[in-house]
Design a protein that fits this description.
mainly alpha; two-stranded antiparallel ribbon; membrane; DUF112_TM; DUF112 domain-containing protein; transmembrane helix; transmembrane
Length: 500
């Protein structure tokens, strides 16, 4: 009852005219960047970071969550209509979604995706409301050793399990950790990797790095690779975006199964929605093979419904893990964690005690965002598809201007503009050489936490580092990590044998 009362208070805060406006703005921006090629919710949140510090924290995070959810709603549009997913989390949706579009059912495919994303996100929001306080209370048992184990878990999972190349994943992670330690050490006062420059005494801003790597790096990549990118024809959506009763009966079980698969991955730092969407697609394909008339390969509605529900249920639970544990499971969540830190807030049990109005208004806004996104995407999906017609030179020129203006407005330093360009070139090289970006962001966000936790644990035990493996919680995290990494290694070995 107490939870429902707090949620009711949260709705009173979220349903103010100002916060409703920020929900709408976040959902519109998220859907737009999801639809547009090469963009995504992580880039949108990174671009918005420099210009939202003047906002009230509640309004800012309500907008960020709308962008986060809206990005997944929009990602599938490009995959369905062009067979080119906007983000990796939408890859599984393209397999059957594009076949539905080619079969003249593009409008119904977009409706299937929108309803699936709504169901997955709404159920996940309900779970978050009741589980987040429990997780936050559980996290009060965490000390320095446990937080260090949690950071190591996130580092290893995002750099080895999710990425196709472990070496590149680890290289990206260590680059992020290296950037995180630049500056003056807060304990000893020693200069670290500053090269004597006073501009680096305070370190390199996370905002600058995220905007440079995710946004400017993408702009440079598109500018250099445009001539090598083969344009694909857009399937024009026709008909009404409504599903018949038989199609609803066909899709409903897949929506629910996909949601169930995606929920647990919201609290596991395994890269976000990519794994659960493929698992949901694979399950539906195996179930379809048992039917008398298999539909997969012909535009099976279940093959689109399940991944969409799985992706949004993972995102919803990820917000719970972020609020209660301070654990980012994707690049977008990592940037939002950095935003909390920029506002002087630390997700975890103290956040629920120190800023309950913000937390419960944000949780209530999840439900509002789901309804708003369904309204924006179900009847207007065909209008969103027209964003794909924006000429790339105009689109990416605007993004470049927004990058520079945002960084200069937040810092007022020309050095930060030079750093933006330098790190943007690094981001371009990482894209060109197929290095994953999420480990870099998570390494930079969680690096200070890991360093502080390691130092505090060692000091509390008089330099005895065995304290890191004496806690049951820490041992459990390391054990789960070993199982996850081991399973990943076995699956890759099997895949290589099949390829041979």
């Amino acid at each position: 009852m107490e939870t429902l009362q707090l949620l009711g208070d949260g709705f009173l805060g979220a349903l103010t005219l100002q916060n409703l406006l920020w929900v709408l703005i976040g959902c519109v921006l998220g859907t737009a960047v999801g639809v547009l090629p090469g963009l995504g919710s992580s880039m949108a949140v990174a671009l918005l970071l420099p210009v939202t510090f003047a906002l009230d924290p509640t309004a800012a995070f309500i907008m960020f969550s709308g962008v986060y959810f809206g990005g997944l709603f929009g990602d599938s549009t490009m995959g369905i209509l062009m067979n080119t997913p906007g983000q990796a989390s939408a890859i599984a949706s393209t397999f059957e979604g594009h076949k539905m579009a080619l079969d003249g059912r593009a409008a119904k495919a977009l409706a299937t995706a929108a309803i699936g994303a709504f169901i997955g996100g709404f159920i996940a929001s309900i779970c978050v409301v009741f589980l987040a306080p429990v997780l936050a209370e559980f996290s009060t048992k965490f000390g320095p050793a446990e937080f260090f184990a949690l950071a190591v878990f996130a580092f290893a999972a995002t750099s080895t399990v999710v990425t196709d190349d472990t070496v590149k994943g680890l290289a990206s992670l260590f680059l992020g950790l290296g950037i995180a330690v630049i500056g003056i050490d807060g304990v000893s006062g020693a200069q670290r990797f500053t090269m004597g420059s006073p501009f680096l005494f305070d370190g390199i801003s996370l905002v600058t790095v995220t905007v440079a790597v995710l946004a400017l790096g993408e702009v440079i990549y598109v500018a250099c690779m445009e001539r090598h990118i083969v344009g694909k024809a857009i399937v024009r959506p026709k008909g009404r975006p409504w599903l018949s009763k038989s199609e609803l009966r066909e899709a409903a079980p897949a929506w629910l199964r996909g949601t169930a698969i995606g929920l647990p991955f919201g609290v596991v730092p395994a890269g976000g929605s990519e794994i659960p969407t493929f698992l949901a697609y694979g399950l539906e394909k195996r179930l379809d093979a048992r039917r008398k008339d298999p539909q997969f390969g012909k535009g099976a509605i279940r093959g689109l419904a399940a991944p969409e529900a799985a992706g949004n249920s993972t995102t919803g639970m990820a917000m719970g893990a972020l609020l209660s544990l301070g654990l980012p499971i994707s690049a977008t969540a990592a940037i939002m964690l950095a935003a909390f830190q920029q506002y002087g807030l630390q997700p975890g049990p103290l956040l629920f005690d120190r800023a309950p109005d913000l937390v419960w208004a944000l949780l209530a806004s999840f439900f509002i965002a789901m309804v708003v996104l369904l309204i924006l995407n179900l009847p207007f999906a065909m209008l969103w598809a027209k964003l794909l017609l924006i000429p790339r030179p105009y689109l990416y020129a605007g993004i470049t201007m927004f990058c520079a203006m945002g960084i200069y407005a937040s810092s007022g330093s020309t050095f930060d503009l030079a750093m933006l360009l330098g790190v943007g070139i690094v981001g371009f090289l990482m894209r060109a050489l197929d290095f994953p970006l999420a480990p870099l962001i998570i390494g930079m966000v969680l690096g200070p936490l890991a360093e502080t936790s390691l130092r505090d644990a060692a000091m509390s035990a008089n330099g005895d580092f065995t304290v890191l493996v004496q806690s049951p919680i820490a041992l459990t995290l390391y054990g789960v990590l070993v199982v996850v990494v081991g399973a990943s290694v076995v699956n890759r070995m099997r895949a290589r044998r099949r390829a041979l």
